[in-house]
Amino acid sequence: MTDHHGDIDAVSGKSTTGHEWDGIKELNTPLPRWWVISFYLTIIWAIGYWIVYPAWPLISSHTTGLLGYSTRANLAVELANLEVARGEKMAALAAAPLADIEKDPALLALARAKGRTVFGDNCAPCHGSGASGAKGFPNLNDDDWLWGGTLEQIMQTIQYGARSGHAKTHEGQMLAFGKDGVLKPDEIVTVANYVRSLSGLSTRKEYDAAKGEKIFAENCVACHGDGGKGNQELGAPNLTDKIWLYGSDEATLIETISQGRAGVMPAWDGRLDPATIKAMAVYVHSLGGGK
Amino acid sequence: MNKTVNPNELTSDDDYGPLYAARKKVYPQSVSGTFRRIKWGLMAFCLGVYYFLPFVRWNRGLGAPSQAVLIDLPNSRFYFFFIELWPQEVYYFTGLLIVAAVALFLMNSIGGRIWCGYLCPQTVWTDLFYAVERLIEGDRRERMKKDKSSDPMKLERISEIVLKHSIWLLIAWWTGGAWVLYFNDAPTLVKELVTFQAPMIAYIWIGILTATTYVLAGFMREQVCTYMCPWPRIQAALTDEWALNVTYRYDRGEKRTSVKKAIELRALGEQVGDCVDCFQCVAVCPTGIDIRNGPQLECIQCGLCIDACDNVMKKIGRPTRLIGYDNDINIQRRQEGKAPVYRIVRARTVVYSAIIAVVGGIMLYTLATRSLLDVNVLHDRNPIAVKLSDGSIRNAYTVRLLNKSGYDRVVAIDADGPANLTIHVVGVDSVTPDRPMVVIPRDSTSELRLLVTAPAESNPEKSIPVRFHVTDIGLGEVASTTDNFVSP
């Protein structure tokens, strides 16, 4: 700043900056000293900060600072502490025989609390936050199970999934009878009506029940069993009950029969630890549908 | 006051007082008499209860705390002799606070600031601290002289000051110490405190209360009442002309003269007041005011000026109670030469008493008849209802059972609703399948998952009320609650 102290504005008595436009001079009003000092102090502070804390990005990393501070490392420590704090209870859960967990109120409460949280994080996207499912994704509250509803069967499904690609996963799928040319369109309509009749649903007037039964016996009983009671070994649903994974209307059934179905449930073995999977199994079982 | 004042004459500081003034240290003189004795008695009682109550034992059986009065924060329980309260019963404290507030109003409408003068912790501890000060440093005059003296301090004076503050701190420390004993088993905690094994929070609270007691009773004193406490302001708005207050009798006291002059004038048959302007009432006052200026915000109505004045009146052979408990009506009547009137039973006191009786009665009734078995039911929100494979409808509920008694219970759960409801508790294989039975350990709660199923053919409506009963199968005690059964 050039000193123009010699140039004093006549009206205000202040010095000017020396700038003049059309006879109007700019008054020199410097920043307050305390402000300037504070400003320089913040700069000094920032330099100290760069030295002790992570600050500058480098090509593939960043300066780490003398204190070695890292939010990521702190998080890891806190998570580890949490694991230790929960360790004793979770160890009791891991050690307890699966069948006895529900009989012990403390273990049941722990498994349900743990299960509810993990379910919300991992299962809710498909099965819904209340586990009531959606089209193609089973409702876990009811008593209709594709792969079995005992504690062991539920745990096995969670561990290895269905058609997940895991070596121990559940296999078996609904074939595409129409797309693959096994059944003609009119045969598909007939057998769809026959399937509806199995659970007491209405059928078309012109539909030939005897023909439907014949088609069913030739193509479907292998998986769905005599009378359409289903087979949990193959994940073939019971066709005689009131619960339908994809829908019971004729159009949906025709779609199912002609296009086939093969919903996938991922395997959680290796992604969740065994005690957590155990808690999940108890939680799902305790929703009410467990056998 | 009854003295008519022309506002135009109020110009000097003596009339209004300065808006901001440094505190004038008060040196209350010792006094003996009726009210001093009452105050000693109440102080002994209040402090005795406060300091020793945690050590009173009360047998509640094995596994339950044996302290008569205990606030058990970790387990969320409050124990008071035979009463045990859970957090759900916090409304008893609401009732207690209502009774306490109205009792304060009732005291006020009968005898003015009885609370302030005799019972308030600020008064009681300040009084105790003054007693210590007087014992060590001497009475009013000596203390004033010692404070004013500009001579360099001698060892004797220094040891006096050190001793006084040490005793004050000891009392303050004991006050904080007694406080924490209400939150833990007292004998155990005392042992832990002495051996430095007690939790840090106990030491922190003792520190806080030692500091507050020491500062409030040793230094703040009457300033707490005058500037910090809201009650003098509320009290002034709640009082009426019938309430008894510590009052100077103008009709008897004025005109003030000296003892000698009064005798001379009386001999001549002239009218003179009984007040001899001895300032004893001012000397003993713990708030440093002159009661003869009429009722004042600063006056805590401790009655010590009554004792001081009575002692003087006895000595000069005049009737006592020149200062005494009186009401505003009588101040007026006495000026007019009429006989005093008193009225304790009036609308205000009757209403306050009635409120205390009603709230207290409700509390006692509910406390005596409250159930030690309780049930809360919460319907699942997601999903609200589930259709099962055979077409029947099932609802799930979270049931919380509360056993407030000192013994384990076996309870049976029933659901009362549309016909053919079946119920099942997750994890419970009951010998009676339609009536699940569970054990609730004593003094605890149990959370259960209850499944209620209605058969397909019953075709229940959209939402129907279901009543849940929990029956103690040993004692027959029943707790019930209602929720809804919903169809999808």
Automatic annotation (TrEMBL), chain A:
Pathway: Energy metabolism; oxidative phosphorylation. Residues 110-199, 207-288 form the Cytochrome c domain. One of its GO terms (biological process) is oxidative phosphorylation. This is Cbb3-type cytochrome c oxidase subunit. Component of the cbb3-type cytochrome c oxidase at least composed of FixN, FixO, FixQ and FixP. It is found in: Cell inner membrane. Belongs to the CcoP / FixP family. Heme c 2 binds at M174, C220, C223, H224. C-type cytochrome. Part of the cbb3-type cytochrome c oxidase complex. FixP subunit is required for transferring electrons from donor cytochrome c via its heme groups to FixO subunit. From there, electrons are shuttled to the catalytic binuclear center of FixN subunit where oxygen reduction takes place. The complex also functions as a proton pump. The chain crosses the membrane at residues 34-52. GO terms for cellular component: plasma membrane. Keywords: Cell inner membrane, Cell membrane, Electron transport, Heme, Hydrogen ion transport, Ion transport, Iron, Membrane, Metal-binding, Oxidoreductase, Repeat, Respiratory chain, Transmembrane, Transmembrane helix, Transport.
UniProtKB/TrEMBL annotation, chain B:
Residues 265-294 form the 4Fe-4S ferredoxin-type domain. The chain crosses the membrane at residues 40-58, 90-107, 161-182, 202-220, 350-368. SUPFAM superfamilies: 4Fe-4S ferredoxins. Coiled coil: none annotated. One of its GO terms (molecular function) is 4 iron, 4 sulfur cluster binding. GO terms for cellular component: plasma membrane. The keyword Iron applies. Pfam families: Fer4_18, Fer4_5, FixG_C. Keywords: 4Fe-4S, Electron transport, Iron, Iron-sulfur, Membrane, Metal-binding, Transmembrane, Transmembrane helix, Transport. This is (Fe-S)-binding protein. It comes from Bradyrhizobium neotropicale. The lineage of its organism: Bacteria, Pseudomonadati, Pseudomonadota, Alphaproteobacteria, Hyphomicrobiales.
